Amino acid sequence: MNVTEFVIVVVAFAAVSVLGFWAHRWRRSSDVSLEQWALAGRGFRSWVSWFVIGGDLYTAYTYVAVPALLFGAGAIGFYALPYVAIEYPLVFLIMIRFWSVSKTHGYVTTADFVRGRFGSPTLALAVAITGIVATMPYIALNLLGMQAVLTTIGIHGYWPLVIAFAVLAAFTFTSGVRAPAMISFVKDALVYLVIGVAIFYIPHRLGGWNHIFNAYDAHFKATPPGTASLLTSANQFQYITLAVGSAFAIFLYPHAITGVITTRNRAVVKRTMAALPIYSFVLGLIALFGVMAIAGNIKPLIGPTGKPDTNTVVPNLFQHMFPSGFAGLAFAMIIIGALVPAAFMSIAAANLFTRNIYKEYIRRDATDREQATTSKIVSLLVKVGALLFILLINPQFSIDLQLLGGAIILQTLPPVMIGLYTRWLHRGALLAGWAAGMIVSIWTFYLTPNVATHVAHWGGTGFALSHLGLHTETAIYIGFIAILVNLAIAFGGTALLKAFKVPEGTDHTVHADYFTDVADTRAAEPAVPAGT
Amino acid sequence: MTQAPNPQEPPPAALVHPVNSDRSPWNWLLLIPIVLPLLVPIYNRWTPKLFGFPFFFWFQIMFTLLAAAVTAVVFVKTRRGD
Question: Residue A532 above 70 pLDDT?
Answer without folding.
Answer: no
